Amino acid sequence: MFFIMVSFIGYLFGCLHGSQLVGKLKNIDIKNSGVKNAGASNTTILLGWKYGILVAFIDIFKATLAILLVLYILKDNGLTGDSQMLLVYVTLFFVIIGHNYPITMKFSGGKGTASLVGALLAIDWKVALIGIGVLLIFTFATDYLVIGVLFMYISFLVTTYMFFGMEPAFVVFMLSILSFMKHMENYKRIITKQETKLSSMYKKKVS
């Protein structure tokens, strides 16, 4: 029962897409414009940092709120310990699934990076600090957000295994594979030097 409940909550929150809301506000189909990604980075490329931050805020904190809601429900029902943590990771999994494959966008959404950051904030401050730190270091060192995301997933997998064990780590492993597949085109564009660099986004004027 708890598994079904947290899966539903996670997917429902995941379907609340920042880029879709901003796209309607600005009358632009963000998913099918620019680098064709329904996320904060593509919104920044198309509309500037102001709207990119707005999309990131929505996509980050929908995951935080979903996990906090699940934690409240589980604690209210006396469920704690390893079982609780595994259900938290299941919630995260379905938030990402909802973000990547939202019913509100014909199952074609984003790549889940911002939502992962929001989940880290709700899961554990140590995991969040390490994961976000790794994301920032590798993003700024390489000038490619996608490289930072790759190493953030690796660090998240390691820290989850260290702090919470094999079962939550397996959930992260599955999410890591999904993220790698979703970013495959970005990796190809890096090889051909066509991927948008982080530094070029700073120069985008606010629309």
How is this structure best described in words?
The chain has 207 residues and is mainly α. The chain has one domain. Helices cover 76% and strands 0% of the residues. It contains eleven helices and no strands. Helix 5 runs parallel beside helix 9. The chain starts with a helix and ends in a 5-residue tail after the last helix. The model has no long low-confidence stretch (mean pLDDT 88).
Question: What structural keywords apply?
Answer:
single chain, 207 residues, mainly alpha, 11 helices, 76% helix, globular
Annotation field: number of helices? 11
Mean pLDDT: 88
DSSP summary, beta strand count = 0
Termini, distance in Å? 47 Å
User: Helicity level, as a percent range?
Assistant: over 70%
Order of helices and strands: HHHHHHHHHHH
Binned strand content: under 5%
Radius of gyration: 17 Å
What structural class do you assign from the helix and strand content?
A: mainly alpha
Largest sheet: none
Number of domains: 1
User: What best-fitting shape do the alpha-carbon axes yield?
Assistant: globular
Low-confidence stretches: none
Task: Give a quick summary of the entry.
By secondary structure, the protein is mostly helical.
Question: Secondary-structure blueprint of this entry?
Answer:
Elements: H1 2-14, H2 18-26, H3 40-47, H4 49-76, H5 81-100, H6 113-123, H7 125-142, H8 145-164, H9 166-182, H10 184-191, H11 198-202
